[in-house]
Amino acid sequence: MYNHQKIEKKWAEKWVKDKTFTPDLEKAKDPYYALFMFPYPSAEGLHIGNFYAFTCVDVMAKYKKLQGKDVFEPIGFDAFGIHSENYALKINETPRKMLNRTIANFRNQLSSAGLGCDWTREVDTTDPEYYKWTQWIFTKLFEKGLAYQKEALLNWCPGCKTVLADEQIENGVCERCKTAPEKKIMKQWFFRITAYAQRLLDGLETMDWSDITKHAQRNWIGRSEGASVKFQISNSKLQTPQHRCATTGQANSKSEISNFKYEIEVFTTRPDTLFGATYFVMSPEHPLVEKITSPEQKKEVEKYIKKTGAKSDLERAEAKEKTGVFTGAHAINPVNNEKIPVWIADYVLMGYGTGAIMAVPAHDERDFEFAEKYNLPIRQVVAGKTQKHKNTKTQKHCLIIHGSPRCDKSKDTDYTPDNIKHWLGWLKKRLENNNYKVYNPQMPTPWEPDYQEWKKQIDKLDINENSVIVGHSAGGAFAVRWLSENKKKIDKLILIAAGKTITDDNKRLHNFYDFKINQNIKNRVNKIIIFVSEDEKKYRIASAKLYQKELGGELRILKDRGHFTVTANPINKEFPELLEEILKDKCFVGDGININSDFLNGLETEQAKEKMIKWLEENELGKGTVNYKLRDWCISRQRYWGPPVPIVYCNKCGVQAVPEKDLPVELPEMEKGWEPVGDGRGPLAKVNKFIKTVCPKCGGSAEREPDVMDNFLDSAWYYFRYVSPRDNKNIFDKKLSKKWLPVDLYVGGNEHAVLHLMYTRFIAMALHDLGLTDFDNPFKKFRANGMILKDGKKMSKSKGNVVNPEEYGAKVGYDALKTYLLFLGPLNEDRSFSDSGVQGAKRWMERIDRLEEKINNNYEDDKKIIKKLHQTIKAVTDDFEEQKYNTAVARLMKLTNSLSVEKNISGQTWEKFLILVAPFAPALAEELWSSFAKATDDKAERFKQSIFKAKWPKHNPKLIKDDIINLVIQINGKLRDTIETPINISEKEAQKIALESDKIKKWTNGKKIIKVIFVKGKLINIVIK
RNA sequence: GCAGGUGUGGUGAAAUUGGUAUACACGCUUGGCUUAGGACCAAGUGGAGCAAUCUGUGCGGGUUCGAGUCCCGCCACCUGCACCA
User: Can you give the distance from the CA of residue A816 to the C1' of nucleotide B44 in angstroms?
Assistant: First the structure.
């Protein structure tokens, strides 16, 4: 009987006692460092997601051990930090007391779960012996100028009462307490991670990490190439001519320019559009705003700053309309010396670039939106390339649907075929001038247009998001009907005196185009404009209003209808202009050819960029630059539960790092008053005994920095410490680290992509540059695991669907639980945990257990079984190499099924089988291994030792090969028969056999064989006609 | 909006990389063993059809003797990032 509780407990204890998974780091010859993501000992115990990641590492570690490697699987606790502290606050206990309990609980859980942890090298980040080195890293970075203090606009979390790093804001809220952070200007400590931006980016190229992780890091670093341009800003009220012609206008006189007082740099990715910069915008938080604002605008500006300051980033991003105010100041566009107004607006972020931009409304959507709202000038400087240069994807299309000509049947002679032709010609020309490709399919029947016939033509056309549909009269109704009946997205829909249709409340205007208007059209069309004229027939006006009611969009009622029918010139005066306005791109952000740009005219975007950069550099007005989104890592936390920043402020000597001999700066154990205060300083600020100290340089009285360091620093270097956790002279043992580092395999959730994993890479690079290591990628192989869902849904406490590993460990056993988790699916994808599924894994354990009865040492296995065994060895081994644990388990299950129908199983097969199973179900495998020792008496010493001392089996290629196969016979690529043949059957023979088959004859009978395709050892395909 | 990913039975998912679609498991159906079973054993299980056979990997095209796999065009969902100049 399989008693998982008994055997799992027994082996977990025995492994620790026998040091089965405790390698001798000094003597090890073939090291393999398998690392679990540093767990923080939460009071809720081990989370299934972490447990899964641990399992992925552990299974590989066990496999590697069986392959003869010296495997190191250390464990420790990331016990400092806001997460632990917040929980302690919640339960009103000191973090220390709470952790004593939760760590014990964690240790207990982890050790009973059958993971091969080396408990002799446990580390705890809250141990002064550990954080001494965390602080030491700080001081080293400080020496190198990589740790520095600055005043900056920071994310202040009112929930956690501390500043946070940018990386710790997720979806606009605090990663820990989900509060929206406020923006505050504060002086804090930073790590200069931006100094490594390019290296962090370049390193990704060659790293064997999950693509999604690398991708997330790439995005976060956010490299963009462009130029920085210097603008002179003035708050004086000098009168200078506005908006001179860029090409011919004279420069402002020297004297005028010299009165400008400030120089502000902007970053742009589009230096080629510099001639189109018609205004200048600064972030409301920009430090110079106050100085440049004119007295007249002061009130407005201050009001605006106050208003936006109160908004969180999240609120700002969600704001539908851009807002801003004029500062009264002007900037000089360096390329043409134009005087352009300086605004402040919160769509310009202080945190990116320089916090100021040149606005090019014609070629940037945000600037355009802003310019339109505040009536700022828009100047086009890039033209879309001519049709020849355009590819089909960006080619704009226009579909004109004209109305039904009334011919001579009606006295309404406006709608004669000739007039329509004339009107179409005019419209077509207009559109083509605007770079549209025009379609105008014929209406099949002139007087009673047949929608279905017409639709057939339209469906063939390439109508897409760039397309405009102009529908005139009946054509308008057709357009709306066509859009109602499909899901196409288009750019603009223009209805001109559109045909009649039924109303929403069934008031029938006309049943000619009887259909239901799909309200959803408005979501699929960027702009809807409905034209009708005052002098149209009443029903047409009614119908236009109806369309507007149903579709939304703008309704333009024009004065006269000349433009619709074009019986004679002149065409209605309003319409051409309006049409022109509508057809123009709201702003063109793509590449094209420069116009209105002096020396850039005629150049394509790429060349224009290059030339502009060259020009800026020659004139010392700017230069080509690379900008990164990545910002420096703010590591100060106004909290208690972390390693104190090892800095001393001396009135005489200034800011001093605590020297190595004085480290660690111990965190005082506090029973009371350790709660965060929220006044911008950590609670340690009030602890005089801690704060008051002496200057390490002059010995005079000094004060300590009261803040502690970000928890992510603790975990950014822990893998170093594992190799020599008790070394009190060095951060790590150089010899051992050289041997064991970097880590061979690391698995964890991708939520750490830009946090832990980015910081760790940075610290690794910094330590490398300090000459401490010879590598700068900490983890040779990293795999991001998918999320474990419960029955298809995210697990959460509120839903009550949290899977607790301990519970399942007790119910079905950790062997079964771990196996099930791995079996669920590929490790990078999300998969769904189900209770009945985990039972299946347990049944497998029981089936394995029952096989034991069949072992017969005097038995020799059937060839078939040996073949299956060897095929499985190969497949499982291959799967391990690719970390396809799910299929490895499936293969072992299959082998189990094959074995369970046998009456006898030989000892040799059993031995190999157990080793294959051991990484997944270590306790069961050990148990059966040790009881096999009894069965074999003392013939084999090895069974008395742990199974993990055994050797992973090797497959024998000769035994795997099939000599008989099922040859697949296809007719025209479809399976019609399979026939057993020797594997090396020749094409001729195969063809003969195939054609003799009754099943095949049935198909070939009376048909002509055109071709025969033969794939050796696989199939024969007969092509017939 | 941008980027990345995914789409195959009732469910989780396989598919040797262009060659028998649905391995393995869950669930379900039927039968056996049982006082009983949420245990075990046996058989079955994509859909339609009595059958031969047809059909079937999100949808529509294409390449090919042959497409889940490759190409083009859509659709849906998920995950990041998001006013990034």
Answer: 28
H/E run at residue A229: strand A223-234
> Residues 3-42 of chain A: which lie with beta carbon within 7 Å of strand B?
none
CA-to-C1' distance for A888 and B52, Å?
Answer: 40
Which of A160, A101, A165 lies closest to A675, judged by CA? A160
**Which of A383, A386, A406 has the alpha carbon at shortest distance from A395?**
A386
Can you list the domains of chain A with their CATH numbers?
Answer: 146-198+638-705 (no CATH), 223-385+592-627 (3.90.740.10), 397-583 (3.40.50.1820), 964-1024 (3.10.20.590)
Strands A525-533 and A490-496: parallel
Residues with Cβ within 8 Å of residue A319, at least 6 apart in sequence: A311, A346
CA of A864 to C1' of B33 (A): 30
Return the minimum-mean-pLDDT range out of A421-435, A635-649, A982-996: A421-435
Nearest to A342 by CA among A270, A273, A294: A294
In chain A, residues 165 through 194 whose Cβ sits under 7 angstroms from any atom of nucleic acid strand B? 170-171
Query: A123 phi and psi, to 5 degrees?
Result: -120, 160
> How many CB atoms sit inside 10 A of residue A36's CB?
24
The answer to whether the beta carbon of residue A854 comes closer than 7 angstroms to any atom of strand B is no
Asked whether strand B has any atom less than 7 Å from the CB of A1015, the reply is yes
How confident is the model over A180-233, as pLDDT tens digits? 888 888 899 999 999 999 999 999 988 999 888 998 899 899 999 999 999 998
The ipTM estimated for the assembled molecules is 0.94
Q: Is the CB of A596 under 7 A from strand B?
A: no
From residues 708-767 of A, which are strand B contacts by CB within 7 A?
Answer: 750, 753-754
DSSP, collapsed to helix, strand or coil, labels residue A33 as: strand
DSSP states along A450-481: -HHHHHHHHHTS---TT-EEEEETHHHHHHHH
Within 8 A by CB and 6+ apart from A863, the residues are none
Across all strands, nucleotide nearest A355 (CA–C1'): B85
Query: Which residue's CA shows the smallest distance to C1' of B2?
Result: A219
Q: Is A914 helix (H, G, I), strand (E, B) or coil?
A: helix
Cβ-based contacts (< 7 Å) between A 83-142 and strand B: none
Q: Tell me, in Å, how far CA of A544 is from C1' of B82?
A: 39
- Strand B nucleotides within 7 Å of a protein CB: 3-6, 11-15, 19-21, 23-27, 39-42, 53-54, 65-67, 73-76, 78-85
Does the nearest atom of strand B lie within 7 Å of A259's Cβ? no
Assigned token pair, A730: 């060095």
State how far the Cα of A269 lies from the Cα of A57, in Å rounded to an integer: 43
pLDDT confidence of residue A583:
65
Average pLDDT over residues A393-412: 58
pLDDT of A792 over the 70 cut: no
Q: Spell A114-123 as b/e; 16+ CB within 10 A means b.
A: bbbbbbebbb
More confident residue, A961 or A289: A289
The answer to whether A447 touches A409, Cβ cutoff 8 Å, is yes
For the ranges A108-122, A138-152, A171-185, which has the lowest average pLDDT? A171-185
Please give the nucleotide, over all strands, whose C1' is closest to the CA of residue A216. B80
Q: Give strand pairing partners of A332.
A: A232, A339
- Per residue in A876-909, pLDDT (tens digit) is 999 999 999 999 999 999 999 999 888 889 988 9
Closest by CA position to A151, among listed A183, A189, A186:
A186
- The CA–C1' separation of A388 and B57, in angstroms, is 41
CA of A808 to C1' of B36 (A): 26
CB A782 within 8 A of CB A746: yes
CA/C1' separation A209–B72 (Å): 32
Q: What is the pLDDT of residues A231-257, one digit of tens each?
A: 998 765 544 444 343 333 444 444 444
Q: How far apart are CA A676 and CA A680, in angstroms?
A: 9
